[in-house]
């Protein structure tokens, strides 16, 4: 994303509702950082998934992103927390631009939030998608059931390979 668009989005977000500002200011990052889900880093999550033979849920977010903040309550929902337990959950801030992110997922877009599901060896389980034809890895906050269904599919990935 070019700097002018990013600045516009950031200013638009900051200039938005006070609730959005409060949410941003009171959380460590934009999506899912509240202790209910056991989030891992990329490297730690890959190692843990391989060792435990578990599927992976990979959340790509940005602190400035209003959609990422809107997704926060979904990750605090008890049903979502429960659906996350059989898989390894990894969070990555897109603005940190780790090389692996572009190498592995760059061809699938740069929009945020994106949620990918992976096999225990880290390969993409492309069949697990949000149902959005234009943005197949974008899960909308009002469709938490779709995300939970995808998480449940990912829980079976460790048994398939």
Structural write-up:
This protein has 161 residues and is of the alpha/beta class. Helix 5 runs parallel beside helix 7 (144-155). It is globular, with a radius of gyration of 15 Å. The chain has helices at residues 3-14, 18-25, 42-52, 66-76, 78-84, 99-105, 144-155, 157-160; strands at residues 39-40, 56-61, 88-93, 114-118. The chain has a single domain (3-160), classed as Glutaredoxin, CATH 3.40.30.10. It contains eight helices and four strands; from the N terminus they run H-H-E-H-E-H-H-E-H-E-H-H. The relative contact order is 0.18. The chain starts with a helix and ends with a helix. It is 45% helix and 12% strand. The protein has a four-stranded mixed beta sheet with strand order 1-3-2-4. The longest helix has 12 residues, at 3-14.
Classified by CATH, the class is: Alpha Beta
Strand order of the largest sheet: 1-3-2-4
Rounded average pLDDT: 83
Q: Please give the share of residues in helix.
A: 40-55%
CATH superfamily: Glutaredoxin
Number of strands: 4
Q: What are the defining features of this structure?
A:
alpha/beta, Glutaredoxin, about 45% helix, disordered N terminus
């Amino acid at each position: 994303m070019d700097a002018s668009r990013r600045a516009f989005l950031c200013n638009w977000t900051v200039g938005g509702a006070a609730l959005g500002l409060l949410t941003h200011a009171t959380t460590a990052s934009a999506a899912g950082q509240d202790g209910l889900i056991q989030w891992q880093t990329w490297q730690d999550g890959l190692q843990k998934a391989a060792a435990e033979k578990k599927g992976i849920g990979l959340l790509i977010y940005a602190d400035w992103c209003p959609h990422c903040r809107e997704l926060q309550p979904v990750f605090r929902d008890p049903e979502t927390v429960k659906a996350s337990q059989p898989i390894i959950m990894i969070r990555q801030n897109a603005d940190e631009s780790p090389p692996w992110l572009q190498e592995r997922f760059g061809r699938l877009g740069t929009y945020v939030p994106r949620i990918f599901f992976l096999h225990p060896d880290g390969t993409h389980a492309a069949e697990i998608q949000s149902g959005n034809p234009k943005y197949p890895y974008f899960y909308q906050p009002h469709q938490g059931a779709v995300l939970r269904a995808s998480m449940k599919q990912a829980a079976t990935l460790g048994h398939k390979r």
